Amino acid sequence: MRNLGQSKLVLACLFTMLMLHLIIWIEDSFDNVGVNYAASLIRDDEEYRFAQALTVLNARKNTKGRFAFQYAGGARDHEKQPFVELYPTPELTFSILAANRWTHEIDDYEPSYLLESTANLLLAIEEDLSLYGARFSSINVTLCPTTDQVDQFSELAIISKLLPVEAIKKRQKPMDSFTLSCRTLLDVGSCIRQCVTSSVTNSYMVLLEDDLIAEDQLLQRMWDILAQFATVSPSVEKEIGAVVLYLRGVDFQFSLSDVTSMWELSILSFGFTMLIISFILPRWYRRFCFPSDFILVFLTFILSALIVCFIGRPRWTNWLLFLSRKQSFAYAFRPLDDSGASGLLIPSAVARSLGEYLWGLNCSELDSRAPFGLKSAVISNFLRTQNLEIYTIWPTLFRHRGLYSIYKNDIHDPHTMN
């Protein structure tokens, strides 16, 4: 009778968790309430960042100064904060794919993503310089306009006051008449071919879309990632094809296609099962010896798995980071999700091959009906054919703040924005 009562208790909890999952799914699928309010909050944040960017521009204009993008590494001020040395000293090239979104009449609002993200990135570089000195061999910032009418790109005209002329990488041929799918890939190929000039060890390209905003301590976390990869074996290091620097929280979940996440789910569920059984069963360690209790244990495991999924993989990972006192984890990842290619760290040698491959694609073979996610799929397939691994970093180094989609010519659902 006691086992029957305990089984009913577990079944009641199991039913409750299923109902919670169902309610959340219905809410996510059909909740359009507050869309305008959520979008207004995103626009308020954008206007605040826009004001910050203009403040940065005015400060540099008044002092007639420029950001220090390129600097010689080597000498280091002893008063700077200590850090783990890397040999050879890494060099970074940030390349931002700059879309002129003002030409897309979604509504009367004019986004200024490029100005905000570029100023944010440059401030992150200055912050790292002030804290650690010129520890990188070099840091370059380049912009790749994805339009033929560069002279009509008003944001680019403003930012060019901070950048040297050679930092603006125009298209290598006119492409406005091509389909969006074709332009998307050829723009990436053109950008990589012009921006990546080195293939030495520890040279990396950071390929970004213009609606990504750098998180705090961007360069510090990037240095830690490079230090983490430097500790692996040379054979593993050669297999690194790309590192995903931005991933939506909804894409970082427990998935049957992700073996690592399934191991995490199993371990956490087993731990919860042991915890629950130790409370509801006297002498719980003996219960595993009786077949009559297997159903109760199985139901408890299912309940535990639902609890783990309800809390979510991002929260579990963040708690583990806090306990381990680490800044981030690197995961060997499955093929890129739709948003996975919006922020990538790529070794320069791999980037050069990728750029040539993308530039040589035949546009007639591309699916012009599905431009969103096409870049991720093509890059993922290329790296897989080269036997190269894709890693993802959590927490991500960038956050997405682009409400206006260049692929859909519409706005994103603001509830999905992080």
TrEMBL record:
One of its GO terms (biological process) is GPI anchor biosynthetic process. It comes from the Eukaryota. The chain crosses the membrane at residues 9-26, 262-282, 294-313. This is Uncharacterized protein. Keywords: Membrane, Transmembrane, Transmembrane helix. The keyword Transmembrane applies. It comes from Fasciola hepatica. GO terms for cellular component: Golgi membrane. PANTHER family: POST-GPI ATTACHMENT TO PROTEINS FACTOR 4 (PTHR31410:SF1), TRANSMEMBRANE PROTEIN 246 (PTHR31410). One of its GO terms (molecular function) is glycosyltransferase activity.
